[in-house]
Amino acid sequence: MAVIEWAEPEDAGEILTVQRAAYVGEAQLYGDPFIAPLVESAGQVRRAVETAIVLVARDRTRIVGAIRGRMSGTTCLVGRLVVAPDRQGAGIGGALLAALHDEAAAALVFDLFTGHLSEGNLRLYRRHGYRETRRERMSDHLTLVHMRREL
């Protein structure tokens, strides 16, 4: 099983590689190869590691997953939960989400969003206590589902 720990700035390139691999399916699902996680740069990932809560799941030396959280008052904004495609379905995403909940101990609320067609993501978030708060239509092919977990 993977070990979850804080990311280091030098992990940015590998995090980006896992992120891109994980989001290819989302891009295909929504017919958009230019979604933000696929066009983000290694420098942007490095800045996130340096300024936010960024956790990685490591299997020995390989990063197999990552998650980000950014505090805004007592709210943790959750983003970029990714798991390497060959490791999806093994509980890594849920473990990363639970670890972020623990690391952001000051948070009273956790907010996130995902696409309306991303059924696996929606199931995962619901299992971890998230409830839909609203939907935001972004285009003909994408509606964002905003979700919240309150403590």
Keywords, please?
151 residues, alpha+beta, 5 helices
Strand order of the largest sheet: 1-2-3-4-5-7-6
Tell me about the largest β-sheet: 7 strands, mixed
Low-confidence stretches: none
The number of distinct helices, counting runs of at least 4 residues, comes to 5
Tally the beta strands.
7
- Radius of gyration, rounded? 15 Å
Kindly report the average pLDDT value.
95
Q: What fraction, in percent, of the residue positions are helical?
A: 25-40%
Percent strand: 35-45%
Distance between the termini: 28 Å
Shape: globular
What structural category characterises the helix and strand content?
alpha+beta
SSE order in H/E notation?
A: EHHHEEEHEHEE
In terms of topology, how is this protein built?
Blueprint: E1 3-6, H1 12-30, H2 36-39, H3 42-51, E2 53-59, E3 62-72, E4 75-83, H4 92-103, E5 109-115, H5 119-127, E6 131-139, E7 142-150
Parallel strand pairs: 4-5
Antiparallel strand pairs: 1-2, 2-3, 3-4, 5-7, 6-7
